[in-house]
Specification:
The complex is a heterodimer of chains A (352) and B (179). Chain A is an alpha/beta fold. Chain A is built from 12 helices and 12 strands. In chain A, helix 1 runs parallel beside helix 6 and helix 3 packs parallel to helix 4. The mean pLDDT of chain A is 96. Chain B is α/β, with parallel strands linked by helices and 179 residues long. Chain B has one domain: Pyruvate-ferredoxin oxidoreductase, PFOR, domain III (Pyruvate-ferredoxin Oxidoreductase, domain 3, 3-Layer(aba) Sandwich). In chain B, 38% of the residues lie in helices and 21% in strands. Classes of the chains: A alpha/beta (352), B alpha/beta (179).
Chain lengths: 352, 179
């Protein structure tokens, strides 16, 4: 099954009751899948007139208590940022999927990881954060999608699934057995008609600066809880590693192929793959920095996650970087050569 | 064992469906498999390719650096992909369209006149299945018998009328290599 289709089915099994989308490559198969399946199930599917309309439909559905989702790719995600900022301010749950493609501007339709900063730094205006999940395989999508809906409801905050064109397009065998029926969350904020109860209001317009500051601090406390409780990552051959590669999503898959080759030649390279890129798994890097000196960041961008790695290591160790922006997909052999060269240079430096 | 195969040719030659059929058949055998299409702005007549990785263990990268097998259905694909083939690898060439005289000396070449063989079956549309049959015979990536048995599932409901034709095409390619 293609990543896009698997994502759609996982959302349906997670209880997604409303999907709104506007076409853009390379995530069209998701919209196509939802168009077919949501109708069959009597749920809501709307192909909106624009990305901006889609995210605002999500806001409307969410405030009425629905599990709502929208999806897009890089240029479309830029358009959705205003709506995501409103969702965060209004404390409304929603799942937003971004199948990243080459940019900036219209860019191209090849897979890329160049929207890391947009996704992890909020992307829209105001002091807000979204949890950002970066799955690395089609099967992992089936774990990440129900998690995204649950985290959105639990924290009442938008959650971003950060994929890329390759994850959306590639096909792998996939099993949905791990998805449990959706949990119920208290919906004491939804607007469902005030019959028999006091009326409610959901708004982000707070003219009183004191009130706005209080609201902001409340959001910050929520983001701190996320940072404490929701960090997720995978480690690969880190126990004896002398160099740690940090890569996420499909980039991490290619790195894994490279590390297998490096290990055949006794180069002790391991990997940390953040599954949540926000909150970023900083603690494990600090822990590894006690014994490892060399860290290697690989991204399909000109270097964005490297900022988080620098912040996490706080001056410890040495950070190497290799990036391929613009929608280029490097091969495992290419990464094997580059990482291997840095590994040798690092070993020589140690000897001196 | 892990095998990487790249299928390449013109859009419309059934290049992606060749890869998809192989990937699905391998999945039904219980193997690990990834299928990665190139999904550029291609149209009919443009270039198309896909990478299929079949393995007995979890697959790290769905991108193949040095594939063991390349299927080239047209000349541009032959020129492009013969350079990345592993030394000792196998290049399956559509002899009906490709002049393979400029081939590297450290790889094997299997020439299949797919168009001519397909026309014997009455339609050039199954040229891709003839090539796939030949590849399976030459490579042993998956079991040919299991694939034929699962053909109904592989082609899907809408194509049940075409099972016989596709089976004949696969067998034609398979047996062509045998001879």
């Amino acid at each position: 099954m293609s990543g896009n289709a698997a994502l759609g089915e996982a959302a349906i099994l997670s209880g997604c009751s409303c999907y709104f989308g506007y076409p853009i490559t390379p995530q069209n198969e998701l919209t196509e899948y939802m168009a077919k399946r949501m109708g069959e199930l009597g749920r809501v599917f709307i192909q909106s007139e624009s990305e901006i309309a889609a995210i605002n439909m999500v806001l409307g559905a969410s405030v009425a208590g629905a599990r709502a989702m929208t999806s897009s790719s890089s240029p479309g995600m830029s358009l959705k940022q205003e709506g995501i900022s409103y969702l965060a301010a209004d404390e409304l749950p929603a799942v937003v999927v971004d199948m990243v493609r080459g940019g900036p501007g219209m860019g191209n339709i090849s897979p890329a990881q160049s929207d890391y900063l947009q996704a992890t730094r909020g992307g829209g205006h105001g002091d807000y954060k979204t949890i950002v999940l970066a799955p690395g395989s089609v099967q992992e999508l089936t774990e990440v999608v129900p998690l995204a809906f649950d985290l959105a409801d639990q924290y009442r905050n938008p959650v971003v699934i950060l994929g890329d064109g390759m994850l959306g397009q590639m096909m792998e065998p996939v099993s949905f057995d791990n998805i449990k029926p959706p949990k119920e969350y208290p919906k004491d904020y939804t607007l469902t008609g005030a019959k028999g109860r006091p009326s409610r209001m959901v708004r982000s317009l707070l003219f009183d600066t004191k009130e706005e500051e209080e609201h902001n601090w409340k959001l910050v406390r929520k983001y701190q809880r996320m940072e404490q409780n929701e960090v997720r990552y995978e480690t690969f051959l880190t126990d004896d590693a002398e160099m740690i590669v940090i890569a996420y999503g499909i980039g991490a898959r290619i790195v894994k192929g490279a590390i297998k080759r490096l290990r055949q030649e006794n180069m002790k390279v391991g990997m940390v793959r953040p599954i949540t890129v926000w909150p970023f798994p900083a603690a494990i890097l600090q822990e590894l920095a006690k014994t490892v000196h060399d860290f290697f960041v690989f991204e399909m961008s000109a270097g964005q996650m490297i900022e988080d790695v620098r912040l996490a290591l706080a001056g410890k160790g040495r950070i190497h970087f290799y990036g391929r922006p613009g929608g280029i997909i490097p091969t495992p052999v290419e990464l094997y050569r580059i990482i291997g060269r840095h590994y040798y240079m690092a070993a020589r430096r140690k000897e001196q | 064992m892990t095998t990487n195969t790249i299928f390449s040719g013109f859009g419309g030659q059934g290049v992606l469906s060749m890869g998809f059929t192989l990937a699905s058949a391998a999945m039904l055998e219980g193997r690990y498999v990834t299928y990665l299409p190139s999904y550029g702005v291609e149209v009919r007549g443009g270039t198309a390719n896909c990478t299929v990785v079949v393995s007995d263990e979890e697959i790290a990268s769905p991108v193949a650096s040095e594939p063991e097998f390349v299927v080239a259905m047209n000349q541009p694909s032959f020129n492009r992909f013969q350079n990345i083939l592993q030394s000792g690898g196998l290049m399956c060439v559509n002899a009906s369209l490709v002049n393979a005289s400029s081939v590297r000396s450290d790889i094997e070449v299997l020439s299949i006149p797919t168009s001519e063989l397909a026309e014997q079956l009455g339609t050039i549309k199954v040229a891709n299945m003839i090539m796939l049959g030949a590849l399976i015979r030459a490579s042993n990536i998956i079991s040919f018998d299991a694939m034929i048995k699962n053909l109904a599932e592989l082609l899907g409901e809408g194509k049940s009328k075409l099972i016989k034709l596709n089976r004949e095409a696969l067998e034609r390619g398979f047996n062509y290599v045998k001879e």
